[in-house]
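Incident log, structure service

09:12 report received: a user says their structure output differs between two submissions of the same chain.
09:20 pulled the input from the user's history:
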Amino acid sequence: MKTPLPKFPHALHTGTTVQNRSLERGIEILRSFRPGSDLLGNGELAERTGLSRSTVSRLTQTLVSAGILEHDKNARAYRLGAPVLCFAHAMRSCYPILQVASPLMRSVAETLQVNVGLATADRDEMVYLESVRYNRKVSLRSVVAGQRVPIELTSLGHAYLAATSEGERRDLIAMFGAKRKCWQQLEQQILQSIESVRTSEFCAVSWQPEVVALSTPIVLDNCPVYVLNASVTTPEPIESVAARLAAPLLTLKRNIVAGME
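09:34 re-ran on a clean worker, output below:
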């Protein structure tokens, strides 16, 4: 059975009081669908959410009635319905920071021939809001809006940890420490990244072979913490990549902040 995640600000609650438990559980059902998980049955959904099969059955029936899920009778399983795609399109077409950031990001990516991304956190992962890819490796050009990456391994996540609240940072680090092997080494890398963000506004991480990414947080009033990154495939040392990309990345960040203001 899946271990429930800690309640971060992205969950449906006010203080410690859940506003609508049925709605929260229904959202957990929808969260279970990821790339590669086209069809999920009630048993798989129960395992992924930690909910009982009877509860999952009631929720999936309701979601099918609402058109949010489709039921494949032959497979006895469910897939996301078309309205979910409409929600994503409505979000991307109206999201304020994307209106400002997307053209600026594309210009920098094309000029420097690097990948540029914008992300925010969802529980223990970073979710790309926008991704402009100019990577020589085909496999790394497939990163798209909506894709998730782990907070604890990536420059996006490390920059987010540097900018989020002390309480959420503590909860996340405790979670990572409980699930990750060789945690001491990884924790040291995270702490170094947090310090780099505080002193230099960015951190640099290489969590995939010959891929170096720089990230910087964007903190705006009445908005979640966003993180902007630039990455490149190269055999260069991480220090030389940072020296080359830090200034353009921070200039892009300032231009986005100015546009939002």
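09:41 both user submissions now match this output. Likely a transient worker issue. Closing.
09:42 reviewer note: The chain is about 50% helix and 20% strand. The two ends are 45 Å apart (CA to CA).
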